[in-house]
Task: inverse folding
């Protein structure tokens, strides 16, 4: 017995329309972005010789710049360290006030979350520029900018970690009449301590990188020296500085990654 082969039913219309619409939006955003930013592969290709010529000016390296780099580099690390330390301390109350299972009032929770979102919407370089206008030039504006960045990011990550904990210990503490502070200290902190330490180490890595450019707006650190070298077209010293920063960041990244692998 023979007959026509069975045919599959056509796919639903709505998913197809959603797929076509998504690709259309993606293409429209790409074209609009390329147009308004003057993105051009031809211009990029024409700039490749200049790219290599620029890096060619960095050779041979001028190692006489090494004595000048030590102090600003140390200042950069100090900015990142202090900013991470004070930012971490400042984030603690926001972590618990912004977590659904540890805050006392939903209004407070949403208020804290909204405030943190608002703070995170401003980049750390802009905070540094604002702080330079208020506190004058030097590393202090850089520290303040890093504190604000660290507190806002750590509070966000921390509140999400708190909401993902096992509720059992909290419920047990509530059953025996423990207060909210006691619940946090004995029921929440032991569960999030390792993860939060890992976050702090990771944010310190980010802050070291961020601190290297804060000097461009006068907020201290090695960025000021980098700006000076570029202003005087001293590319050979610039190359030495970049190599030193690269090595330090790699070292911190390796140590931090090892420490975080032991924590989690």
Result:
């Amino acid at each position: 017995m023979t007959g026509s082969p069975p045919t599959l039913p056509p796919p639903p219309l709505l998913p197809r329309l959603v797929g076509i619409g998504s690709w259309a939006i993606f293409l429209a955003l790409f074209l609009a972005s390329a147009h308004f930013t003057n993105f051009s592969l031809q211009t990029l290709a024409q700039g490749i010789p200049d790219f290599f010529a620029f890096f060619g000016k960095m050779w041979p390296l001028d190692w006489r710049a090494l004595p000048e780099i030590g102090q600003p580099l140390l200042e950069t690390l100090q900015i990142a360290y202090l900013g991470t330390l004070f930012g971490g301390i400042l984030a603690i109350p926001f972590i618990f006030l912004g977590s659904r299972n540890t805050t006392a009032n939903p209004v407070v929770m949403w208020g804290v979350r909204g405030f943190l979102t608002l703070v995170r919407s401003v980049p750390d370089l802009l905070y540094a520029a604002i702080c330079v206008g208020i506190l004058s030039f030097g590393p202090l504006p850089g520290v303040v900018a890093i504190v604000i960045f660290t507190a806002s990011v750590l509070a966000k990550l921390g509140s999400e970690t708190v909401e993902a904990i096992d509720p059992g210990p909290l419920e047990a503490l509530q059953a025996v009449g423990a207060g909210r502070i006691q619940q946090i200290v004995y029921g929440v902190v032991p569960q999030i301590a390792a993860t939060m330490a890992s976050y702090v180490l990771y944010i310190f890595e980010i802050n070291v990188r961020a601190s290297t450019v804060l000097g461009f707006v006068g907020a201290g650190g090695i960025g000021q020296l980098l700006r000076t070298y570029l202003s005087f077209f001293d590319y050979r010293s610039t190359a030495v500085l970049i190599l030193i920063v690269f090595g330090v960041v790699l070292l911190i990244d390796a140590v931090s990654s090892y420490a975080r692998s032991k924590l989690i």
Summary: The radius of gyration is 26 Å. The longest helix spans residues 180-214. The mean pLDDT is 87. The chain has ten helices and no strands.
